[in-house]
Amino acid sequence: MKKTGIKIVTIGGGTGSSQVLLGLKKYPVQLSAIVTMTDSGGSTGKLTAKYKVHPMGDVRQALLALSNAEPADREFFNFRFAGSGLKGHSLGNLFLAALEKATGDFEKSIQIIKKLFSVEGNVIPVTLDFTDLVAYLKNGRKLVKEDQLGLLEKKGYHFKKLGLTRKAKANPQALKAIKEAQVIIICPGNPLRSVLPNFLIEGIKQAVKNSKASVILIANLMNKKGQTDNLTLFELVAFYEQYAGPRAIDYVIYNTSSFPPSLLKKYQLKDESPLKTDKENLSRLSYKTIGAPLLAKTGYRQKKGDVLLKRTAIRHDPKKLAKMIMRVVSKTKQ
Question: What is the pLDDT of residues 289-304, one digit of tens each?
Fold first, then answer.
């Protein structure tokens, strides 16, 4: 049955968006997930390069998160091949690539998957134009394509600003969703590779600015070396507003859980460090900050066949995160 509650739009990509969607789908809300379309790494990168199809990895994760299909069916869609030839490829990615080649329409492919896997909510590519990310460095050099941004963790690669190889117009469906939204959530996730690229798409930043919706930023648990390095929460929000627009954010939700040494030792990636909260700066800002214990107790275990990318294992707890989001949403309705 179609939900008729408050309209919530999420903006992001990858794991961060899916964690938000997994928690919120349990509530009586109407969800629309706007996802980035500049992924060029892993299974997605190989398929887009070979078959000239749209990047599908972030779309697949959002569809899975919103799926009400049986667990076995979701596992089937998320299955990864371990053998040679298709090693590391997700069946869902192959499925979406095949559907796009067969129909010639990426959005139609998404609608087919929605029906097959009982997806409740909308999954919207931020753009249907083909473009790639560019990271401009302080030494005048640049890194082209999303997967190359991993080099920013190396010594001597000092990030300056993020851009695109060519202009890309926003998907009209994304603009419509933002216009109709009552709440917009900027999801956690890799800042330069998953979240902020959405705001480089022509029309998105202005649409969020013009929207009457309350904008909530979910702060990351961890900083990324070469991207946000040792930024505090206050500095992180300022960095995001360089791309989303000044005073674009109304609320910031952040984690107050301490990180158990055992969790960091077992799951922390070499390019990650916990985000620090500078409470002395938070009391005099234009946005409201809400802290809560949001850390998942156990780290994510990467699946055996998932060998093409190293994924973040320290994650938000979807239930705790959704509960806090809905608490903020209730305030916006008052």
Answer: 999 999 987 644 545 5
